[in-house]
Amino acid sequence: MALCGVIAWGISAALPAGRFALPHATTVGSAIVLAGIALNLAPKWAFRRAGTTVNPLRPQDSVRLVQTGLHRWSRNPMYLGHAAILLGVATALENVVAFAAVPAYMLYVGRFQILSEERALRARFGRTYADYCRRVHRWL
After folding, report:
1. 29: domain range?
2. Average pLDDT for residues 72-90, to the nearest whole number?
3. Nearest residue to 34 (alpha-carbon basis) of 89, 103, 101
4. CA-to-CA distance for 70 and 78, rounded, in angstroms?
5. Per the structure, how many domains does the chain have?
6. Residue 58 lies in a domain
7. In the Cβ-directed half-sphere of 41, how many Cα atoms lie within 13 Å?
């Protein structure tokens, strides 16, 4: 996520033709970033309360499948929070090209992180996880 944000900033600086004017862009962007931070932190607290791992590199260590709170609407609210943070940064940069960071991040994390997490959770929780996937979308 941070790398995508840095790239968005660099591209927006290198391509001033993509600039647009948005009233209160910094304020709007900051509000979106704060919402993204909340989307990222609230599920971590839920995981800790459930006594399960928040480490995305060790999903096989999960002891409980959290399906409450934000996880009722998204299987990946932490990654959704990252995408929102990038959206807020792009908004504050006021450059249309910077918005490419959001789908770039989502595609990357989907392919190189979420798929492996899903395999591990499917192996760990079986039918319970499969039922959860049928009810709740990956992003929203």
Report:
1. 2-14+23-135
2. 98
3. 89
4. 9
5. 1
6. yes
7. 7
